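quick one: AG3 bound model?
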Amino acid sequence: MDLWFTEYYTKNARFSIKIDKHIISLESEFQRIDVFDSYGFGRILALDGYLMLTEKDEFIYHEMMTHIPMAVNPNIHDVLVVGAGDGGVIRELTKYNYINKIDMVEIDKLVVDVCRKYLAQTACKLDDLRVHIYYEDGLKFVRSKYNEYDLIIVDSTDPFGPGEDLFTKEFYGNCYKALKTEGILINQHESPYYPNDALAMQKAHKKIKSVFPKALVYQAHIPTYPSGHWLFGFASKGLDPIGDLNTGWKTLGIKTRYYNTDLHKGCFALPNYVKELL
Ligand code: AG3
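yep, here:
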């Protein structure tokens, strides 16, 4: 019998991956956690039935969330990562030996435990000495922070369920306050394609724009996320992702499979139908 994992995108569209082996399913205080081995995409992680990552294409998402801001401000030393229990963003950040501190705030400890055990590809750097993990609500955590971080990366789930608070104006305002003057906020920004996702993206962007003087959107192709066309938010207190691009990034010798400087310059160019939403 064939076993398939299916994520429903709309009433009329869905995406399925053929499953080789069911690894584990657990119910945490916050959500359902599933891990499978698939034929075409390696091991996969789903939360509440939504695909969070596959081993095959997670590098695209995690590199684009991390190296874009790192290449804009060469003086990023203190970083906060919100969500991201799988450790993919942390793995990318630890490639920079001049980062001093990486705080990670994840609401669901069970996600981290499961990823440590079953998703070594992303969780491999969670024990780096610079990483401090807080199992708390992200919104509550940033409320008490002031002028502390150079970079905040919000690797959340979709804007409903446990990740909902991370799409509020209050959260973005607290991130602004928690960032230093050269601070950058990156967030996963959903897809512009299917109407519900586009609306969520549009609402989030509006809120970010009302808080940060600079708020832009960039894109990447992620085959296993809804529509494959994925957006990220870049917000800052002044730094411009193209104008302030550090030409010395290449000399750091950071190894990436997706990100490069040409792509950095190109990914802020958006299709007309997306521009109209912003
Ligand atoms: N962060 C969530 C991306 C949203 C995916 N949405 C969906 N499949 N409906 C992914 C976590 C990876 N670190």
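The radius of gyration is 18 Å.
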